[in-house]
Design goal:
single chain, 310 residues, alpha/beta, Arc Repressor Mutant, subunit A, D-Maltodextrin-Binding Protein, domain 2, 5-stranded mixed β-sheet, 13 strands, 42% helix, disordered C terminus, LysR_subst-bd, DNA-binding, WH-like_DNA-bd_sf
Length: 310
């Protein structure tokens, strides 16, 4: 039997016609090449080359062997090419989902990291409502979903991503514009956009209003954060938004005010229990967690939320 190393050396001598040429091609010493050729010929009982004036010519009895060696080397090249493609993400597709609040800024930044690591990887991103995430995972449409809320489901696992806070957003020129902080009581003095007590973030503010016995007037309901920001920018009211939607200046033309009351919340990655994750999904989760934790209140402070570079 010949090892792949012996195949590689014999072929290098065959291609270059000299021991020195083979050594240079393989970036090894010439004596090592010579010893391996002699050992291979001796162990197999076959003379591969005729030596004439320092050059090596294939012997007639070795012609068939060289043909097979070329075939083996071609398969090794094909294998190397496939491994290289896989290493760059080729031949694979990453399918992930995200709720809108995380998909606006955080997911694209995480995907940019993944793309740098796997430049040929196919990527499919789905923006999902909370109630759509279960079917997305259970039916195998994707590997993971970035969630703003942890559901109770026996077939799903939830891995922590990062913590965040809510902010009050106002249009430029508003009475509250320029303030660093605002209380829940002050927020209720103005028409509110988009507060839905049934949404994870809405429940936080609804709880604060209820505990403080504050009445609030919702003039426009809008489920997605980008729409809420657009309505505020148009001067139609003020709103409460999660920090990840507006991180890194993700929606210019509005001002962010810290809320005096505690509004901290946790985010998660949901996966199907027992389903193995691909290397690409693991890389995405790692990148997303890093991006989101970089702007956590205890780490990034409000400066990162307002769009300053880390």
């Amino acid at each position: 039997m010949m090892t792949l190393r012996q195949v590689e050396v014999i072929r290098a001598v065959m291609v270059t016609g000299t021991i020195g040429g083979a050594a240079k091609l393989l970036n090894v010493s010439a004596p090592g090449i010579s010893r391996l050729v002699k050992y291979t010929e001796r162990s197999l009982g076959i003379r591969f080359f005729q030596r004439q004036n320092g050059r090596y010519f294939p012997t007639p009895e070795a012609e068939n062997i060289f043909e097979q060696i070329n075939g083996v080397y071609k398969k090794v090249d094909d294998l190397s090419e496939i491994i290289s493609k896989i290493g760059r993400g080729g031949l694979s597709e990453l399918r992930i989902g995200s709720v809108p609040s995380i998909s606006q800024v955080m997911v694209p930044r995480a995907i940019e990291r993944v793309r740098r690591r796997y430049p040929d990887l196919g990527i499919d991103i789905n923006i999902l409502k909370l109630e759509e995430a279960i079917d997305y995972l259970m039916l195998g449409r994707g590997e993971c979903v970035a969630m703003s809320y942890r559901l109770e489901h026996s077939a799903l696992d939830f891995m922590p991503l990062a913590s965040g806070e809510l902010y009050c957003i106002v249009p430029p020129g508003h009475e509250l514009a320029g303030r660093k902080q605002v209380s829940a009581a002050e927020i209720t003095r103005y028409p509110l956009i988009g507060i839905d007590p049934n949404d994870p973030y809405g429940r936080i503010m609804a709880g604060i209003f209820a505990r403080n016995r504050l009445d609030y007037n919702i003039t426009i309901r809008a489920r997605f954060g980008t729409t809420v920001c657009a309505l505020v920018k148009a001067g139609l009211g003020i709103a409460i938004i999660d920090q990840f939607t507006v991180a890194h200046g993700g929606y210019p033309g509005i001002e962010l005010l810290k809320i005096a009351e505690p509004t901290r919340f946790d985010t998660y990655i949901a996966v199907k229990r027992g389903a193995p994750l691909s290397l690409h999904a693991e890389a995405f989760i790692e990148a997303l967690r890093a991006e989101m934790r970089a702007v956590e209140p205890s780490r990034g402070k409000a400066a990162s939320v307002r769009g300053r570079k880390k």
